Structure formats: C-alpha cells, structure tokens
Amino acid sequence: MLVSALITSVGINSGLCVLFFTLYSILRKQPIYYDVYIPRLLLEGTSKRRSRFNLERLIPSPGWVRRAWKLSEEELLSTSGLDAVVFMRIITFSLKVFLVAGVIGIFVILPVNCTGDQLEDVDFVDFSNNSMDVFTISNVNSGSKSVSESVDSFFTEYHPSTYLSHVVVRQTSKLRGLINDAKKLYKRIIRLQSNSNQHKYGRAGCFGCFGSKVDLVDHYGKQLEDIEENVRLEQSELSMAGDEITAAFVSFKSRYAAATAFHLQQSINPTQWVTEQAPEPQDVYWPFFSSSFMRRWISKLVVIVACIILTILFLIPVVLVQGLTNLSQLEIWLPFLKSILTITFVSEVITGYLPSLILQLFLKMVPPIMELLSSIQGYNSHSNIEKSACNKVLWFTVWNIFFATVFSGSVLYQVSLFLDPKNIPAKLAVAVPAQSSFFIAYVVTSGWTSTSSELFRLIPLIGSLITKPCKSADDELEAPTIPYHRDIPRLLFFGLLGITYFFLAPLILPFLLVYFCLGYIIYRNQFINVYEPKYETAGKFWPIVHNSMIFSLVLMHCIAVGIFTLKKLSLAPTLIFPLPILTLLFNEYCRKRFLPIFNAYSAESLIKKDREDQHDATMNEFFDKLVTAYQDPALMPFQFSINTDSLNSPLLSSAEV
C-alpha cells in the first residue's frame, strides 16, 4: 500500500469520525432521540423530555466530552459496578503502555526503518507515492545471511595458513521427510511394475475407497514428480537463504591443525566458539542438528527417567522367571498345575529351559529401546549413539540379569530370610553360587542358541520370505551393519559370569568355552559374508570392555572375601583382600597410560602422518572432495521419476551448494 492510499483512508475515516461526533452532539440534545442516546437517564428520572424549541440544541457542543473525562472511578463504581471499572482499567492500562511504546516507536524505531534500504529508499520529494513497507522492519537491512560469513572470517583471520573450507549446517528435517516420501512412492511404483499379477488400477481417494478409478503407476508417478519438484525447490531455498543453524563443519589443511583448533579455546568468551571433533562424514547423525539446545537438554532428562522406569518394569519378568525355577513355589502360585508338574519332562522344561527363554525374549527388546533413547540424547554421530546404547545395555543387563536374579531368587526361595536378620550375610553369601544352575541354563539358551540363530539369521530369513513376492530385481540390496550395542554387552556379561563363577561354580566354564568357540567361528563368518561397516568408532568400544572386566574382577574379589569370611576360613580373606586394591590401582594406571589414546591422537602421530601426506600426489584430490564431504545428504540432488527431463539436474550446481 502507498502512503497516498493510507492518507486517503485516514482522511475518509477521520471525516466519518467528525461527522458522527457532530451528529451525536446535536441529536443527543433532541427530545425525540432521548430514548436512543440517554435511555438510562430517562429511566432513572434524572432527565426529562423538553418539547420547547431551543436554538442551542442545533449547535454541537463538547460538554459531554468534559463530563465523561471528569468521571471518577468511585462514581463509575457506584453507578455501573466493578465490571465497568475493570473495563475502563483495561483501556487506561493500554493507553499508558502504548503511550510509551508510541514514543519509542515513532522517534526511535520508525527512523531506523526509514533509513534502511533493504526494499527501497524513502522518497521525501514524492512522499505520497512511497510504499508503506519502507516504514516497517522489512526495510531494515538484513544482517549477514550466513553463519557462513562469520565462520569464514573468523577462521581466515585466526587460522590463515591452515584453514581450508567449511560447510554450514542447515535445518533439513522437512526436506528429509519429503525425500523419505519420495523413496516410498518409488518403491511402490517399482513393486507395481514388476508384479504382473498385481492390480494396477485403483481408486485415487483416501484408503483407495473413493474417487475415480486411475492407473496406479501413473497416479503414483505424478505424485512422485510433484514431491521431487518440492524437494528441488526446498533444496534451492535452503542452499540460498535457508534456515541456517549456528553450526558448521570446518576443514583444515592438516591433521595437526585440526587437532590444534579442536583443543584450543577459540575466543575470550568460551561460549562464543565451541569446537568439538567432527565424526567421519558417513558417521554424522544429521537429525542432531535439527533439535534445539533446550530440546536436547530435556531429552537427556527424559532418557534418565525412561531408563529408570524400564529397569523397574524389567523386574517383573525377573520375578516371574525366578518363580519358574522353583517347583514348590510354582505349585503354591498355580495349584491347578500340580498334576502336570509331576511329569518329569514337563518339570525339567519349565525349570531348566523356560526361565532362560522368557528372560531372553524380554531382553531382546532392550537394545533397540536403548538405541532409541541414545539417539535423542544429543549425540552428533551414529558411533557415539551406538557406544552410549552399548553402555546402557551392558549395565542394564548386569543389574537386571545378574543382581536382580541373584537377590530375587534368594528372597523368593527363602522368605524366612527376613525373619532372622542375623543370618542375612550368610544367606547372601550362599545365594550367589546357588544361582549357578540358572546361569548355566542361561548361557546355553542365550549363548548357544542365540549365537546359532545369528548364523541362521532367523528374523531376516522370515522377513525375506514375507517380502520376496513384493520385491523386484531393481530393488537395491543393502548389507546390514552388526549391532554392536546388542552383541558386545552379551559377550561382556558372559565374561562377568565366567569371572564371578569360576571359583564358585566352575561347572559353568565349559559351557562358556563352547559359547565363545561358537562366537569365534560364527561372527568371523558373518563379518566375511553378511555385515558391512558404514562407520567406524576407531576402536572406542574397548574402554567399555576394560571397565567391564575391572568391575567383574572387583565383584569377584568382594564375593570371595565375603564367602570365605562367612565360612570362617580366616587365612583366605587375608590373602584375597589386597586383590581388589591392586586391581583398582592397575585400572588407574591403564586410565593414565592408555585411555588418552582413545580420546585424542598424539601430536607425534599427527605430524608424522601430515609429513607423509606432503609427498602424496592424491592429496589435492582429497582436499577437493573434503570441501563437499560434509554436505547434508538431504541437500544432494536426486531423482526417481523417469517421465520428465526437467528434473534431471538440480537447480543449483554442487559448487554453488
């Protein structure tokens, strides 16, 4: 809208206001209109109709304005009530607020808006033809469109000889959703084209029940083209002036320079430039950048609460399993099974095989849940998510399978434990070796059978049989990655059982040896034929292994000291007592000597590798690839449809992106 249009509107409405004020000032004094303008005064009898003509009634007067202005709150309260006072308070409050806001807006903000030239300069000569937008914030000059310029200027100034390039991270959650929709439609089209027996005509409406009958291939193809066009437009907007996040991947010309920038505080204000080591390009977890700091902070609290709730809920199957291992207790719980439990084979299956199987089935749900919780916890890479999930699954297993089983089994088996508090230490000392039979069965069920099913790949086989009729030769084959967060905790837990029980119940050791022999052959075969790594943690699972072994040794020492003390073997506890101390000292040595290797590379190794790269002829090609290595995959050009040539190339070239 032009200024002249606003002036016209102001003039018309001002004239109408003056006209209404004038007419009111005249008509309110005419007795014939008293019932319109002063009905309350007529009802109260404070005003009467006057029939005698008076010239003054034809002249507008502002007396009513003066009386309304001078009306006090007390008078208003007595005549119209508290609601009227509140209503007028709202108006007076708004007047005070917008009086201050008006002064600031007119004398401070408006000049700033007018002096901008984002849209156009204000033409003071032909003022009426100016657009009203020049008086708004739209005319204020935009600041820098990229975090990109800030990053480039900072690292160019303070790392001039080593800084190579950077890639700003953008908000691409919406774009990823569009790409996923396009992939689903493409697979649906391929499935229809490859299956000659499948109906290729259907309804275009919701759920395929309404609308006209259409060729589904053409229908889905048009939808796919529309989505691809939306993807390209969204990519273009994001690449030119999209939702930038205050984060960027910065590349340097040498490993040593990157390590220096990572470890040094970049500015006087430590929160202004926060640096952390970037994961490998294929390891980046892009959804991390789409969540705000507050959302990640809340997610961490949610994860803690969820882990606690899951741990508590898992005690239910643990108690159930321990009840199954005790026939006499099971007969008390379920007396109608008493006759069946007398059959030898049934009782052996229920007490020997079924408890471990039930526990294993419940435990299979834990790794994917822990992986989900770790993914919302605020990690920027898949490897960190998997490490976090691995830790969660490990300690969940140790607590819920080992400790909960030992203590719940003992308490359920001997309720009289609490009736005689003096014997609690002795009972608990006996409880750990008493559960050896359960853990032997657990090793056989969870170890032998699960590892063999890993070779057979039962679940992927069933999935393949179900989806095979829907697949075509054009479907892309993808090799899976090994779920380390599922398998490493299982190996370490069996290691804990072996260390803890090797002197308490050494019969468990042959079963563990069979399990590890099976694992040695089966997993090597899977690495050769099945699993393909998509990212690397650089061996950072090993500190988890070390911590688990140290914990297992200290636990074994503590159990041994307690058992030998309660069995009144006075010399044995004295000999064993130094062992946990020596173990912890060894752990501290390892933390000082070896743990730093997993946290960062040494300057010696980085500089040595950089010197080797100086003689490598392929480094220039490597640097060229590094410029775009951290480009968000959602911003990469892609195409599934084959019916249009206009979609063959992206709106922007890769160099522009």
Automatic annotation (TrEMBL):
Entry's transmembrane regions: 7-27, 86-110, 301-320, 340-363, 393-413, 491-523, 544-564, 570-587
Keywords for this protein: Calcium, Coiled coil, Ion channel, Ion transport, Membrane, Transmembrane, Transmembrane helix, Transport
Pfam families the record matches: PHM7_cyt (PF14703), RSN1_7TM (PF02714)
Residues annotated as domain CSC1/OSCA1-like 7TM region: 300-564
Coiled coil location: 217-244
GO molecular function, one term: calcium-activated cation channel activity
An annotated GO cellular component: plasma membrane
Residue stretches making up the CSC1/OSCA1-like cytosolic domain: 144-287
Stated name of the protein: CSC1/OSCA1-like 7TM region domain-containing protein
